[in-house]
Write the structure tokens for this entry.
Amino acid sequence: MSGDLLDSVTGVPVMPVVVLERLEHAVPVAKALVAGGLPAIELTLRTDVALDAIRAIADEVPEILVGAGTIVRPEQAAQAVAAGARFLVSPGATPALLAAMADTGLPFLPGTATVSEVLTVLEAGFTEMKFFPAEAAGGAAYLRSISAPVPDARFCPTGGITPATAPDYLALPNVGCVGGSWLTPPDALAAGDYERIADLARAAAAFRA
């Protein structure tokens, strides 16, 4: 059921990829992203507060599409669903991880970095996937080069992408959106500068204006 996720966020050129160390930042960050025109967030499961942060956003900011990223163990898929996640993202795609994410019934983006991995995901029946780590794995030029031999694959590239390079990815026919971690700078989070986050979101939302 991964096939609807990129369609649902096609109007969101940049998927905010967010790491939160403090639970109290969750709701204000989500509201700032919505205010800036990016009503979607991939909250990574890299910290102890991540699941609680997803739960808080799901409960208090229903206008944002909240997902769980950095799904690296099969059991995390069900945990994310229980917390209120509405989509899932993994950095890679083992058979067990694909099965666990598919079993949730949620849309998801399995991670790929090579043509063989892309073909493995396609053979499993999923056409939408994450390309990670995008810049280190070949960047926009790589995705452009594989668009002809594997035209059915669509990507959300993530990893090392900046406001300067994002438009190069978004111009590709096989890219639905890009993942951006620059939208929530650590210093802005530490200072509670949510207006800066909203401004960064506005600039990112304008990529397809």
Remarks:
- The radius of gyration is 16 Å.
- Residues 27 and 181 are 17 Å apart (CA to CA).
- The longest helix spans residues 194-205.
- The first strand starts at residue 14 and ends at 18.
